[in-house]
Amino acid sequence: MVSELGPALFASLRRSDQRARGEQYLRGLLSAEGRKSIRNLAGVVGGVGTEQSLHHFISESTWDWSPMRAALAQYVERMVRPKAWVIQSMPIQKAGERSVGIDRRFVPELGHSVHGQHSFGLWMASEAMSAPVNWSLSLSSSWLQDEDKRRQANIPDWVEEKSPGESAAAAALEVLDWDVEARPVVIPSRDFVSSAMLSRFHAAGVPVIARLRPMDQLRVADTAMPGYGAGPIPVADMLQHIRGLRRPVEWLDAATGTPVVRNSLVAGIRVELPQARRSASGPQQWLLMGEWTNPSGPPSDFWLTDLTSTSLDGLTRMAKLTHRTALDSAATGEQAGLRDFAGRSFQGWHRHLTLASAAHTVAIGAGHAASRNRAAASSGTPSGNRQQPQAG
């Protein structure tokens, strides 16, 4: 797979020595044991003399990572056959103050503050597998307004301060320029979804499925439903009024590694954003979808989407792709070095994440192919007559 992916991945590198260093780095990420430091990578692909050249290639060279990510996205699209794109938050806990973006922030997914880097990845996901193709590193004003820190971390002038929601959206919207088919974007974090963020995706023509908090407020848009005309209502209360409309939906849970078919009760109601702008055609309508894992309890999950004509079954299955990305990030991405860049350079961080994403893609693709081959062998189907199933 490295030989197959490499020529497209490194085509944007002008010099042959850069292409050689890129392949060395990628093979090192796949082969080195433990933490994927440059020293460890050099130890398995070339020794002491290689460490300096790999360090220069990642942290001090001038190559642009965007064309490489575009090539990776096109490869991942063919391999994964994604049903959606998932924006996955990735806090990277670190000690010290030197690495670019180091800060202390509250991480909603963890429920506590983390000292480290805070990033967002855009993952292409199917029920079978997922892989990241783009990244955004969130930088606070303490980094962007301090000229010494900007210079020491080699942060380009074009990098500006963004909110977490803006950083997350940027990771997805940049991919639209990479000659891949746009997919619905699933946003699993409840705490950075805003009307402005949703409107930005809508303006770009990208459908979204965003997880909400129980206290988030929307307006009922269906005149036949309870709460119409009452103004903004907490989504938890809104869904409690339509419990009688729930119906069972089957979905594939990949959270444990071995996919399991599960059932949830799901109901939906047409809604509007609280600050919806009126137009000649009326305000944009959204669908609020609630999920009950305990039939006698309150809703366990709340999702807002502008895919108002998609079935609840299809929406639930797309939303559950977040289980696949979380599993693949922990089980494969960690081993591929997604969290392991130890330098202080902003550009080095992005270059390392680009190649670590490629390593993740190779590892998860090879593992998926091996699983299919084992399944075919156990069925007794002669290899020459095997029908190769498509991923996703």
Please tell me about this protein's structure:
The chain has helices at residues 2-9, 16-31, 38-45, 48-60, 65-80, 141-144, 147-152, 164-173, 195-203, 235-240, 312-319, 321-336, 346-378; strands at residues 84-93, 103-107, 112-125, 130-138, 185-187, 208-211, 217-220, 233-234, 247-253, 260-272, 286-292, 301-305. It has 392 residues and is α+β, with helices and mostly antiparallel strands. Helix 9 links the parallel strand 5 (185-187) and strand 6. Strands 1, 2, 3, 4, 5, 6, 7, 8, 9, 10, 11 and 12 form a twelve-stranded mixed β-sheet that branches. The chain contains 13 helices and twelve strands. It is globular, with a radius of gyration of 22 Å. The model is unreliable at 383-392 (pLDDT under 50).
Strand count: 12
If you average the pLDDT, what whole number results?
89
Share of helix among residues? 25-40%
Low-confidence runs: 383-392
* Total of helices: 13
Concise summary:
The chain has 392 residues and is an alpha+beta fold. The chain is 39% helix and 21% strand.
SSE blueprint and pairings:
Blueprint: H1 2-9, H2 16-31, H3 38-45, H4 48-60, H5 65-80, E1 84-93, E2 103-107, E3 112-125, E4 130-138, H6 141-144, H7 147-152, H8 164-173, E5 185-187, H9 195-203, E6 208-211, E7 217-220, E8 233-234, H10 235-240, E9 247-253, E10 260-272, E11 286-292, E12 301-305, H11 312-319, H12 321-336, H13 346-378
Parallel strand pairs: 1-5, 5-6
Antiparallel strand pairs: 1-3, 2-3, 3-4, 6-12, 7-8, 7-10, 9-10, 10-11, 11-12
Helix pairs in contact: 2-3, 2-13, 3-4, 5-13, 12-13
